[in-house]
């Protein structure tokens, strides 16, 4: 995927990923409540996402549909983070995550499971 979404565009996508296909007005209402954006700001961001191929719109009522799944964007963003901040080293990222805070036993168990599945 070579679509680069900015943080503001990801807020629009998050509404679609969370709630499924909704109208532009609904997205605007949600983001007005969540981040205080006015309708023009939200509509501009929706149009940008449409232009980038991340959202498809249809009538009636300017219905919006996410064309890219959240998992794809998460993978791209994670890879970019690893490359930019951790010199492409997954183990450096993993060590940084482990060192951030005290992990619960269930979180440690889940991480062990992820590592085992990756081997």
Distance between the termini: 26 Å
Shape type: elongated
Strand order of the largest sheet: 1-3-2
Low-confidence stretches: none
In short:
The chain is mainly α. Helices cover about 65% and strands about 10% of the residues.
Layout of helices and strands:
Elements: H1 7-19, E1 22-23, H2 24-35, H3 39-52, E2 55-58, E3 63-66, H4 70-85, H5 90-100, H6 105-118
Antiparallel strand pairs: 1-3, 2-3
List keywords for this structure.
119 residues, three-stranded antiparallel beta sheet, 67% helix, 8% strand
Task: Describe this protein's structure.
The structure is a single chain. This protein has 119 residues and is mainly α. The chain is 67% helix and 8% strand. It has six helices and three strands, in the order αβααββααα. It has a three-stranded antiparallel sheet with strand order 1-3-2. α2 (24-35) crosses α3. The longest helix is centred in the middle third of the chain and has 16 residues, at 70-85. It is elongated, with a radius of gyration of 18 Å.
């Amino acid at each position: 995927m070579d679509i680069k979404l900015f943080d503001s565009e990801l807020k629009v996508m998050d509404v679609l990923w969370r709630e499924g296909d909704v109208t532009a007005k609904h997205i605007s209402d949600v983001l007005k409540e969540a981040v205080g954006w006015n309708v023009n700001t939200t509509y501009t961001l929706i149009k940008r996402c449409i232009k980038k191929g991340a959202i498809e719109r249809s009538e009636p009522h300017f219905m919006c549909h996410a064309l890219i799944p959240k998992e794809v964007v998460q993978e791209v963003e994670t890879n970019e983070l690893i490359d930019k901040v951790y010199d492409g080293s997954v183990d450096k990222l993993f060590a940084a995550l482990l060192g951030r805070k005290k992990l619960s036993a269930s979180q440690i168990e889940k991480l062990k499971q992820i590592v085992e599945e990756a081997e």
